[in-house]
Specification:
Elements lengths: L14 H15 L2 H13 L6 E6 L5 H9 L4 E7 L2 H17 L11 E3 L6 E7 L13 E7 L7 H11 E20 L5 H16 L2 E2 L2 E2 L5 H11 L3 E7 L2 E5 L7 H20 L5 H16 L3 E13 L3
Parallel strand pairs: 1-2, 1-5, 2-4, 5-6
Antiparallel strand pairs: 3-4, 6-11, 7-8, 9-11, 10-11
Helix pairs in contact: 1-8, 6-8, 8-9
Bound molecules: S-adenosylmethionine.
Length: 314
């Protein structure tokens, strides 16, 4: 998802706050059919030393805390992100998580070691680019997690780089890979009004370039599957992990759900207004109707994603 200067109600977007809202939605969306075998592998993998996990584009630490809660063994975790603000929030989320469970943490910023009876977890917070980052000690990685990142990055370059960081026996958990559908219902007028706006939003994802290369874009999920087949990867599980949010009179949206759908609607509005194929007035009207539907709890929102568990063969 892109940052947008045109956030809901035209307030500047607080990205860590948006990721906090997204975490509540992700929790419901992620596929247990992909997550569970990943966790089982992390728990069961034989290694004399702490298991080394890299989390690419780890944001505010959502996957980090899920792994810590599920995997009680010594771990070395590298949370890699380009944003200093997201890393700062990830550190405070980790400290709060540890404090709530009575685990001591250090005062310094990185690494932070959580002293758990079930095995210490040392978390390195690494500001860097997932396309080039390498662990500071140069040692290989047992498992890689990446959630909601690959639509922003060139797939071949990034996945080749990740493969070079991993031990031959490893697992890659690639989650929330956007896969081509965005639905707001009611549609903010009619389907004939909404579809060109959604199309403009998807086209903007398809137009992304990093150093001239196309990114995973609007069909990231299926493109990653294709890349994995083409590169002889071992595919263990692929499953859908759609964001699916329903607000109704009987079951109003939570604050997180409401903020989250508003932010997505504002991303769509920005891209619709930037498109020459749709009139800005029509986009503004569409947006106002969507915001009305959200604030009156009369909205269904869905965005399609895939989760994947794989091993990238050398
Ligand atoms: C949509 S957020 C997902 C965050 C987190 N994985 C989650 O699902 O909540 C994308 C994250 O990737 C980070 N990011 C974007 N481009 C990156 C890059 N080239 N290298 C590392 N991180 C990047 C952003 O700062 C942001 O935290």
């Amino acid at each position: 998802m892109t940052d947008s200067s045109d956030a809901p109600f035209d307030e500047p977007l607080d990205y860590p706050r948006y990721l906090t809202a997204k975490a509540a939605v992700d929790e419901q969306a992620l596929s247990p059919r992909v997550w569970q075998p990943f966790v089982d592998w992390l728990r069961g993998h034989a290694s004399e030393k702490p298991l080394r996990i890299a989390d690419m584009g780890g944001g505010i630490g959502f996957t980090l805390l899920r792994v810590l809660a599920a995997v009680e063994r010594p771990l070395t975790y590298f949370l890699v992100d380009a944003s200093a603000a997201n890393l700062a929030r990830a550190r405070s989320n980790l400290r709060n998580w540890a404090q709530e469970r009575g685990f001591a943490t250090e005062a310094h910023d990185t690494p932070i070691t959580i002293r758990r009876p079930s095995g210490h977890a040392t978390v390195h917070f690494c500001r860097g680019d997932a396309m080039t980052w390498r662990p500071p000690d140069g040692a290989p990685i047992h498992a890689l997690a990446s959630q909601a990142l690959l639509d922003l990055l060139p797939l071949d370059r990034t996945l080749q780089h990740w493969r070079s960081l991993l031990l031959s026996d490893h697992r890659c958990y690639l989650a929330l890979l956007f896969d081509g559908a965005t639905v707001f219902e009611p549609p903010g007028g009619s389907l004939a009004i909404q579809q060109p706006i959604i199309d403009a939003y998807h086209r903007s994802m398809e137009a992304r370039r990093v150093e001239g290369a196309p990114t995973g874009g609007a069909y990231c999920g299926r493109r990653v599957v294709r890349w994995l087949y083409k590169n002889n990867a071992q595919l263990f599980t692929v499953d859908s992990s759609d964001w699916s949010i329903l607000g109704s009179t009987y079951d109003p949206l939570s604050d997180n759900e409401s903020l989250f759908v508003q932010v997505i609607a504002s991303f769509v509005k920005s891209e619709g207004r930037a498109s020459e194929k749709v009139s800005s007035d029509i986009v503004n009207e569409w947006y106002d109707k969507i915001i009305d539907s959200i604030t009156s709890d009369q909205i269904y929102f869905r965005a399609s994603h895939l989760d994947i568990l794989a091993a990238l063969k050398k």
